[in-house]
Write the structure tokens for this entry.
Amino acid sequence: TEPGSENEIHKLSAYISGLDQAGNIDHIEKFMRLIRNVITSKKGFVELSCLSDLLTASPAIITKNNLDLRSTLSGSLREVNETIRMLIAKIYGILLAYGSDDKIFNDEIRSLASTSQKSLEYQHGSILALSYGFYYRILYFRQTDDDMGLAQLLASQELSDSITYLVKLLTDVKSLLTLAAIKGISLIGCSIAVSYTHLTLPTFYSV
């Protein structure tokens, strides 16, 4: 698969799932070790695109053995190159969504939303990471048929506060943050909309 070719992601997903079901994930693990070694010294577009493709295709399988990558990438949310920063934010969000329990997820979401005193680049990366985190967390609960977990996430203070935060950014004088907020609202909004069509909500949650 060519790095970043989203139309090929489903093929990669089927390939990885087949290897996992056959108990033969060694090929992917070797490739992941290569990417990890390279990313330690160079966070280039091709390397990050490969990692992004693998995580997008099979987030649960890939995240399982690479939880420490999130801490490796945390400082790179302030990356100067916008394209690289956006890739890192997506990867960070997937790792957060699939590799955290509820407490760690919520704590990190609050941290990502508290970057107003940081650099513009770091704020931008954090907004995108937060948004991808919610997007993929919702997908995770749907994929695992965890209706209660999904309902609790949708009713959480963290999601409510994050949406309020993103809406406020729509009028920010810095266009980079405004565009990130639009992207974030879009990601969260579409995942929530799909979730409502698949979810029987418990009585404590009203739409």
Q: What stands out?
A: Residues 197-207 have pLDDT under 50 and may be disordered. DSSP finds eleven helices and no strands in the chain. The CA atoms of residues 20 and 61 lie 8 Å apart.
